[in-house]
Every structure is written in C-alpha cells, then in structure tokens.
Amino acid sequence: xxxxxxxxxxxxxxxxxxxxxxxxxxxxxxxxxxxxxxxxxxxxxxxxxxxxxxxxxxxxxxxxxxxxxxxxxxxxxxxxxxxxxxxxxxxxxxxxxxxxxxxxxxxxxxxxxxxxxxxxxxxxxxxxxxxxxxxxxxxxxxxxxxxxxxxxxxxxxxxxxxxxxxxxxxxxxxxxxxxxxxxxxxxxxxxxxxxxxxxxxxxxxxxxxxxxxxxxxxxxxxxxxxxxxxxxxxxxxxxxxxxxxxxxxxxxxxxxxxxxxxxxxxxxxxxxxxxxxxxxxxxxxxxxxxxxxxxxxxxx
Length: 300
Ligand SMILES: [Zn+2]
What we know:
This protein has two domains: about 5-100, DNA Primase, Chain A (Alpha-Beta Complex); about 125-295, DNA primase DNAg catalytic core, N-terminal domain (Alpha-Beta Complex). By secondary structure, it is α+β, with helices and mostly antiparallel strands. The strands form three sheets. Strands 1-2-3-4-5 form a five-stranded antiparallel sheet, with helices on one face. A four-stranded antiparallel sheet has the order 6-7-8-9, covered by helices on one side. It has a two-stranded parallel sheet with strand order 10-11. The protein is about 35% helix and about 15% strand. It contains eleven helices and eleven strands. Helix 3 crosses helix 4 (about 85-90). It binds zinc ion. Zinc ion (ZN) binds near residues 43, 49 and 63.
C-alpha cells in the first residue's frame, strides 16, 4: 500500500463538500450568515449545533460532542474508521463514505479492513501493511500519542505523513490463525523480515515506530523507540530491523535541502525537528550508523 500523496489528501478536503455529506444523511441545513446550521449526527442533538462553513469546507459541533474538521474527519466519524480508510473510501467515490444507512456512529472500528497481512502479498507489501497496522494502532493509543506529545510531536499531519506507529502486541491478532498453513507461513516470513522474533513476540513491542520510506512509500527500514523507562536494565531503548540498514529517512526533504542538512543520531529526534518546521532533517542509525545510502550522491 503506497503512501497517499499530500496533494491527494488536500484535493479530497477541498473537493468533497461537507454540506453534501451532511445532506446525504438527510440533515436539514439552514443558512446563518456565512454558515450552515443543522442537527449534529454524532450526538443526540435537540438544538441544531452543527455548524458548516462552506467557504472553508469545515464543520464543527457546538454541542455535546464538540467534534469537527474536514470532509475526511466527517467520513471517519460517520463510519468509525481510520484516516486512511476514510481517504480510501473517498478516493474510490464509495457510497459508504457518507455513512448513511442510519447506522449509529461508533468510535471503535465499526467497519473493519481485512486482515492487514495477506498470504498473497510479497515481502515488501507485507512490511508496508505491518507499518500501516502500527500506524492505526498509534492513532488508537492515548498512551503512545501521549509519549509523542511529551516529546513535542503533536502534529497529526506529520504523524500521518511519516507514518509513525506503535507496536503493542496486537499484530498477532490480525494474522490468520497459527494452525492454518497460511498463518504459519506469514509468521515465518515476518520472522525473516525481523518483525517477529523467533519466540513469536513482536520485535518492537512497546515502541513508537518510525519507518524509513522510499519516495513511493515502501518501507525500507524500521526504527522503534521504547516508550517506557521502567524496563529491565539492559533493555535496548532504540531498535531496528535486524537486517542491514537501508534508505534515508525523509529523503524528499533532504533532496530539497539547500546545501545544509540537519543530521540527528536517532529518528525520533529527527521527527522532533520536523515538528519544529525543519524539512532538511534526517538521521543516521545511531552514532556509527552511516550507510552507503547516506553517502550516495544520486540520492541526496
Ligand atoms: Zn455533535
């Protein structure tokens, strides 16, 4: 699954009308100045508290639920689905996007994507899907989001763009059952990739995940940073996939840099620079973690 380009997300935010999404749910909208007012579908709304601003194509609820955002946020709330899933429905122009059918909105995943790892996928696709799974797990983990916030990383656009994730031992639940041939095969492939250890445990368990992506969104390397500091002495706080390091984090930002590149020792620090507005930033894989990719003049 390739990364969704930023301009595509912007396009959907601009082109998919929030007012139309509301009307598809039979919400009666009345004009009030620059805004449209109606009953909020996401809480039991007796007085119209939904405000849509067509000029900006944004919405928010002044009532109990206090929700709001873009057309993508609407589709996420209306279906109880992830950002990526909402984008996929909108891109596919799916009638499901409006969340009509009068279904109650559940914040938990009421519509599930299929198992993230499929036996038919090649190793690259498998790794991409694991990272996508970790990304969704992060968005649903107040603990992991809290850790990022503590390190100053709060920008959701950045979290989406760099596909940050969280490994919390739940990947196994999304694999086909162990006794099935397909399940066993995927497990052994995930072990070869370094996502699972020989014991079957997740290599990055308890870590914030920062993948190194190539320009089309394929995962080349994975970095994990443990979020708890009360672990057994000697537990490494920084983890990578066991195979040779590949790729350059934020390759696009580095390529556009004007001669000067900020180099961090760990990817989590580089993300913090990204949050602070620096695009010309990357990281080595630890102090002695330079790779041929970092020196390749064709890449940077
Ligand atoms: Zn509401």
